[in-house]
Amino acid sequence: MQGKFITFEGIDGAGKSTHIGFVTDYLTSRGKQIVSSREPGGTPLGEKLRDLLLHEKMHLETEALLMFASRREHIAQVIAPNLAAGKWVLSDRFTDASFAYQSGGRGLPRAKMEALEAWVHPELQPDLTLLFDVPLEVARQRLDATRTLDKFEREQADFFAKCRAEYLRRAEQFPERFVVVDSTRSIADIQASLAQVLEKLL
């Protein structure tokens, strides 16, 4: 029995990471085997690429190519085999993040992103993408001021405005898999709505 693939998206500070644990616990309580991962990363090679991607300056196209290189390894080593084994794979970010950050935020032509997506995973798409959406000022306030921010988190407001706009455009383009979550609500309210969404997949 094929498993399900759920991705968590949103600009930095949107609160998506807060809810991954809830979704994991919810699905586990209903007998599902869960594999939780992240992008960039998810594999030993991917984690090395993550460190480079989050902290090193590089050409925009190099950044996009490395993101998809990490993703290709992630699919081959984690996502595809676990789905085939009937497990549910949860990923903190997937290709929608590349569209949002490298295309929306950084301005890489969308056609190049679409070509990479078609090459790296022509058939694989999430069964459900949860897009946690908040106004920019809320997202910025939520970033922990006590920790060291990576190069993306240090970007200016206009960058995140473009990222958010691209996320919402993707949600309109693929309404069959996207659920936009108003992440300004209380955690309890959000998790109640997540439970309703997840029940439809079970």
TrEMBL record:
- Record's catalysed reaction(s): dTMP + ATP = dTDP + ADP
Q: Which protein, by its recorded name, is this? A: Thymidylate kinase
- This protein's superkingdom? Bacteria
Matches recorded under Pfam families: Thymidylate_kin (PF02223)
Looking up HAMAP family in the UniProt record yields:
Thymidylate_kinase
Q: Keywords of this protein's UniProt record, alphabetized?
A: ATP-binding, Kinase, Nucleotide biosynthesis, Nucleotide-binding, Transferase
Q: State which residue ranges cross the membrane.
A: none
Looking up Gene3D superfamilies in the UniProt record yields: P-loop containing nucleotide triphosphate hydrolases
Write down the species. Answer: Massilia timonae CCUG 45783
Q: According to the UniProt record, what class of enzyme is this?
A: transferase
Gene of origin? tmk
List the GO molecular function terms. Answer: ATP binding; dTMP kinase activity
The record, for InterPro entries, names: P-loop_NTPase, Thymidylate_kin-like_dom, Thymidylate_kinase
Q: What does this protein do?
A: Phosphorylation of dTMP to form dTDP in both de novo and salvage pathways of dTTP synthesis.
One biological process term from GO is:
dTDP biosynthetic process
Q: Where is the Thymidylate kinase-like domain?
A: 8-192
| Listed GO CC annotations | cytosol
Q: For this protein, what is the EC number?
A: 2.7.4.9
Could you tell me which PANTHER family the record lists for this protein? THYMIDYLATE KINASE, UMP-CMP KINASE 2, MITOCHONDRIAL
- Residues involved in ATP binding: G10, I11, D12, G13, A14, G15, K16, S17
Indicate the family of this protein. Answer: Belongs to the thymidylate kinase family.
